[in-house]
């Protein structure tokens, strides 16, 4: 993988950086747009391939969200509505961190002749799969300072798709001290790692101070039947097979 570092003194926001990339002509095809504070282990390849295929249907961007438990604090709450048939984004609202009033208006025309799903249990890790035309649209509108500005403007044209990450994939974004603390805990507890000890096909005991010990009393879940009342044990060196 080749990494090219681009620097510019003229960029003061996220939108300026994209306009700079467009001016230099560095991006020719589809690309992954990700915030500086995003932490993820997501496999984006299938989503990228899906977005490339959906470009034939006017889709210029796929925004990626992650479902979380309803009672879990995030520090970055959003409310979205999607077309249940096409998975197109039709409404997007991000709550400000200091916003105490949780009331807002849902435009009635968004629900006309549509099967709409409203979500309030997702977080926005600031990951999007984009067509190259996204850079052109940022270049044409200097008022786009963030990816949220772009999404709010273009969802009215039915050009934004939504994708939810699977449960086993992690994605979050550092936006404030609260989210930084939560993500740090997730990293320390190995919820973020794809290749750590948590993904081995073995059983371990998680002890204090992040110490892992191999569990001698493994709990077998497939093709094993033991009669506890008959005092049946499987000792070291034993082999269990079908038949």
TrEMBL record:
In the record, what terms sit under GO molecular function?
guanyl-nucleotide exchange factor activity; translation initiation factor activity; translation initiation factor binding
Q: Which InterPro entries match?
A: eIF2B_epsilon (IPR051956), Nucleotide-diphossugar_trans (IPR029044)
Transmembrane spans: none
| Example of a GO cellular component annotation carried by this entry | eukaryotic translation initiation factor 2B complex
Q: By what name is this protein known?
A: CSON012908 protein
Source organism (scientific name): Culicoides sonorensis
């Amino acid at each position: 993988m080749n990494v090219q570092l681009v620097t510019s003194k003229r960029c003061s926001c996220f939108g300026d950086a994209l306009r700079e990339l467009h001016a230099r002509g560095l991006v020719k095809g589809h690309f992954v747009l990700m915030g500086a504070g995003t932490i993820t282990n997501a496999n984006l390849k299938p989503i990228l391939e899906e977005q490339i295929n959906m470009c034939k249907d006017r889709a210029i961007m796929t925004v990626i969200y992650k479902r979380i438990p309803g009672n879990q604090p995030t520090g970055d709450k959003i409310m979205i509505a999607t077309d249940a048939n096409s998975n197109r984004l039709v409404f997007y609202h991000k709550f400000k961190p200091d916003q105490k009033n949780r009331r807002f208006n849902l435009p009635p025309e968004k629900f006309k002749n549509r099967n709409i799903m409203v979500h309030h249990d997702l977080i926005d890790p600031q990951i999007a799969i984009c067509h190259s035309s996204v850079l052109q649209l940022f270049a044409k509108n200097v008022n786009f300072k963030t990816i949220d500005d772009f999404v709010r403007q273009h969802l009215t044209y039915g050009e934004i798709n939504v994708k939810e990450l699977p449960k086993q994939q992690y994605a979050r974004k550092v936006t404030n001290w609260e989210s930084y603390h939560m993500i740090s805990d997730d990293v320390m507890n190995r919820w973020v790692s794809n290749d750590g000890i948590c993904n081995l096909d073995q059983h371990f005991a998680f002890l204090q101070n992040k110490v892992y010990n191999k569990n001698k009393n493994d709990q077998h879940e497939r093709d094993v039947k033991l009669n506890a009342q008959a005092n049946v044990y499987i000792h070291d060196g034993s082999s269990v097979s079908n038949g």
